[in-house]
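Collaborator request, handled under Task 6.
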Amino acid sequence: MNANPPIVLNPQGRLPGVIAVDHAGRSVPPGLGELGLAPAWRDSHYFCDLGVAELAHELAARIDVPIVLCDVSRLVIDVNRWVDDPRSIATALEGAPIPANAALSPAEREVRQEAVFWPYHKLLGAIWERQTARHPRPFLFALHSCTRVFQGQHRPWDGGTIWHDDDALSRHLLDHLGKEDGLVLGDNQPYSGQNGVFTVDWHSYGSGLPACGFEVTNDLLETGPGRARWASRLAGALTAAIDDGVAA
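Structure tokens returned to the collaborator:
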């Protein structure tokens, strides 16, 4: 299986950090077509994190750290779940089956892992290892977007952190972003990292280095000005984390 390789922005970034964008892509390897789904699904938050790839490019222009984007749809395989998690390769969307994902054999699942999952994490891991060799305390930041209404529930948060064993980076980001009037921010909301999230845990758990994920609600990323505002917010918050010694 041939899949689009990960995309790296600012590959030689000089500041102490790495940004991972797990669900940036809509691409599907040849032979899988549209996964048997109607084309309209490509524009849904199930196919990718809407607006996050564009946000990552805006962010790359504002903070000089490497940014690694997975360009393959998470419906092919989700690079932010353990490979033995049943949700690693989704088999249905809102009760509708995903034909190309139904009844995959272990060998077929492994093909997707070797084509998409492990190349992304090997590249991200290599860049992270390089940054940890260059800097005493780099940050790992996993960038996502999420939908405002999910399973009939309205989410009040405009953005929120996701963390597990160390909340230092999360606390700093929330303190910094919380200075802006009107923003509603979640601490391990709308998603909690307490039960583990693959990317942050695999690359940083137990290291003592500052790491967290962050969700931006995607209705705030629908326009160029909206994405620019969030890129400036996040770049400012992450740069402040360096200036304040949270990362170094």
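The cover message to the collaborator said: "The helical segments are 52-60, 106-134, 168-177, 198-204, 224-243. The longest helix spans residues 106-134. Please let us know whether this matches your experimental observations."
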